[in-house]
Design goal:
Blueprint lengths: L2 E7 L3 H12 L4 E4 L6 H4 L30 H14 L4 E2 L4 E7 L2 E6 L3 E9 L6 E2 L12 E2 L12 E5 L3 H12 L3 E5 L14 H10 L3 E3 L3 E5 L3 E5 L5 E5 L2 E4 L3 E2 L2 H6 L4 E2 L4 E2 L13 E3 L14 H4 L1 H12 L1
Length: about 325
C-alpha cells in the first residue's frame, strides 16, 4: 500500500489550503471528504452573505473576485470548487473517515470505502455537521429543523426560531418576509452583539413594531406536534401554536472522532491539545487546522484567521 506524505481529512477552505501548500512543496497528499468540495458551505443558507470581504476568504494567494462588498454562498462555492478543478487537487469525495490509528510512525486510516497509510494526518473537519442539541422533549419531531436553507417552505406557517445569532436572525427575517408568523425564543436579554451590523437594526425594528414576536430571557422546554411550550422571562409557562421549529442553536465538531484519534480534549469547551506554533496535537505528526481547533468555541477560528495553519503545518512537516 502506498504511504502518503499527508492525508487531509476535510475538503473545506482550510483543507484545500493545506493541500495546495503540500502540492507546492512536492509532498504526496490526498484529501478525504465525506461530502462535496467545501461541503459545509454547500449546506449554508442559500442566500447567506459572509461577514468577511472577498480578500479575507482567499487561499493560496488566488484572487477571489466578487462584485458585492461581501460575497455570498454561491460565489464562495464557485471560488473554492473552481480552485479544486483548476489546481487538480487530489480529493476523494463522498468517503467518510471512520478511524485514524498509528502504528509506530505510520498512520492507518480506515474510511467507508478503503484504507490508507500516511506519515502525517491533518484533521480539518470544521464543525457544521453535528447540531448542538437542546435535549428537550419533542426535539426529534419532524417539524424541528436544525439546518435552515431557504424561507419558501415556511410561507404562511407558524414558525418558532430559537436563538439570536446570525443564523437565527436571518431565518426569522427571511421567513417573516415570505409570510410566516414568526416568534423568536431567546435565552439572552437582547439580540446578539455579533449579528451582522447591517442586519441587526432590521431585526430590532421588526421586533419593536411587533411584526416579529420575541420572548427574551426565555427558554423552550418542550415541543409538541401542534404547539411549543416555553418559560418566559417571568418564569411563567406559555404554550403557543406552532408548525415548525427552527432550532438555530449552533453546531459542534465531532469530538468522538477527535478522542478516538487519540487527541486530548481539555476543559468544559473540550479544547483539543495542540502546539500553537506548529498545529501538531499531542499525537506526533497528527495536526489540526481551521475551526476544529476551537473545541466548543466555534467562533474563535474562521477562514480569514486560520489560513495560516496550512503553512505552519507544512513547514513543521518539512523540518522533521
Amino acid at each position: 500500500m502506498e504511504i502518503l506524505d499527508i492525508l487531509i481529512i476535510g475538503a473545506g477552505p482550510i483543507g484545500l489550503n493545506c493541500a495546495l501548500e503540500a502540492k507546492k512543496n512536492n509532498l504526496n497528499y490526498l484529501i478525504i471528504e465525506k461530502g462535496t468540495i467545501v461541503n459545509s458551505l454547500y449546506n449554508y443558507p442559500l442566500y447567506m452573505k459572509f461577514f468577511s470581504t472577498a480578500d479575507k476568504l482567499e487561499i493560496a494567494e488566488i484572487p477571489f473576485i466578487s462584485a458585492a462588498p461581501k460575497p455570498g454562498r454561491q460565489e464562495a462555492l464557485e471560488y473554492y470548487q473552481g480552485i479544486a478543478r483548476q489546481k487538480n487537487i487530489n480529493i476523494n469525495l463522498y468517503e467518510k473517515v471512520l478511524k485514524v490509528s498509528k502504528d509506530e510512525k505510520i498512520f492507518e486510516i480506515e474510511t467507508s470505502k478503503s484504507k490508507y497509510t500516511a506519515k502525517n494526518v491533518i484533521i480539518s473537519t470544521g464543525f457544521y455537521d453535528i447540531p448542538n442539541l437542546m435535549n428537550i422533549p419533542g426535539e426529534n419531531l419532524e417539524k424541528v429543523k436544525h439546518y435552515y436553507t431557504e424561507p419558501y417552505p415556511y410561507a404562511r406557517q407558524k414558525i418558532v426560531v430559537i436563538g439570536s445569532s446570525n443564523s437565527s436572525v436571518d431565518a426569522a427575517l427571511e421567513t417573516y418576509r415570505k409570510g410566516a408568523e414568526v416568534t423568536m425564543i431567546i435565552r439572552n436579554s437582547e439580540i446578539s452583539e455579533n449579528v451582522k451590523y447591517w442586519v441587526k437594526p432590521d431585526i430590532e425594528n421588526r421586533i419593536a413594531e411587533g411584526s416579529i414576536k420575541a420572548h427574551f430571557n426565555a427558554e423552550l422546554i418542550e415541543i409538541k406536534e401542534k404547539t411549543v411550550v416555553f418559560k418566559d422571562k417571568e418564569g411563567e409557562i406559555q404554550e403557543i401554536e406552532n408548525d415548525f421549529v427552527l432550532a438555530m442553536t449552533g453546531y459542534l465538531p465531532d469530538f468522538d472522532f477527535l478522542k478516538n484519534s487519540g487527541i486530548d480534549l481539555q476543559g468544559e469547551c473540550l479544547n483539543p491539545v495542540y502546539n500553537q506554533e506548529t498545529m501538531e496535537t499531542n499525537i506526533e505528526n497528527l495536526y489540526l487546522a481551521g475551526v476544529v481547533c476551537g473545541g466548543k468555541d466555534t467562533h474563535l477560528w474562521f477562514i480569514e484567521n486560520s489560513r495560516i495553519h496550512a503553512e505552519m503545518i507544512i513547514r513543521n512537516i518539512l523540518s522533521t
